[in-house]
């Protein structure tokens, strides 16, 4: 099998490399400034862990390779304006939005979108960066240079946030994991939970939406779609053309992880629907020092990224999987005592989701 070069050498590239080992696939995570002569890119499939990258000698050379899977799709999805335009063209529901071009728009924007809106940079920005919550009273917090470089969205009073991780192969076959329920705080994903039998109505909606997107783009590999739940319908928030933080639970909660699934899809290997038999929980470790005591709990799987610990930095995650929700609750209550107090809200949210898990008899 061909080797695979991953543009980007962060934790996602590292986990793709780990997923390749049992398959006999050599995966090379590469930095954007690495030397071309050290990378076997001319005889490899090329993928990426990031949507957007600067021009360097290496990235320019990779962009010329026909083996760069989804090469022409990344610029479209990495730019929020063109991403929104794509979704509109497919008649897929999103929060009402407008491009932000100049200050004179604000009276009209507040009339059309309401007095509470979200301004987002068109490119870059993640984990809450490059976004502003705006009302008529705080317009002054927006930097002057944002005009012409942002979109404005109506703030949605959503009931919850979910993501769908799916994959499409070269032959157009699409498969999906169960919907993942997500908790964000200050724009950063704090915790996720997925059930083996998700809400059937929402799952069907989500699969139709994501398959429509992937088919339209002729996309190959794993893609993630983040959505708001509004009543009993989904509104698409954003797309990520790659493996995603909210799919990390699949490493221990599915027979095929999202990382292995991506490698299979881009290598034209079989992609059967992964088997999911247990409830799975993921807790992001953000600016938190490694604590070996976490490993005293039998349900806990630790994934540590070997990064320097800094505030607001994702340095690892914990997965807990079991077909006994009570066992998960017991582990969560214990792990809460081994984590800083800022995790209390996340643990409480996860326990609430366990109590109100989707009904399977509808």
Notable features of this structure?
Dna Ligase, domain 1; Rossmann fold; D-amino Acid Aminotransferase, Chain A, domain 1; 362 residues; 9-stranded antiparallel sheet; alpha+beta; 16 strands; 4-stranded antiparallel sheet; 3 domains
**Could you tell me the strand content as a percent range?**
25-35%
Summed up, the helix count is 10
Sheet with most strands: 9 strands, antiparallel
Radius of gyration: 21 Å
How many structural domains does the protein architecture include?
Answer: 3
- In N-to-C order, the SSE pattern is EHEEHHHEHEEEEEEEHEEHHEEEHH
What's the CATH architecture of the largest domain? 2-Layer Sandwich
- Strand tally is 16
Tell me, what's the shape?
A: globular
Predict the CATH topology of the largest domain: D-amino Acid Aminotransferase, Chain A, domain 1
The CATH top-level class label of the largest domain: Alpha Beta
Q: Span from first to last CA?
A: 44 Å
What does the oligomeric state look like here? single chain
Q: CATH superfamily of the largest domain, called what?
A: ATP-grasp fold, B domain
Q: What is the overall pLDDT average?
A: 95
Low-confidence stretches: none
Structural class: alpha+beta
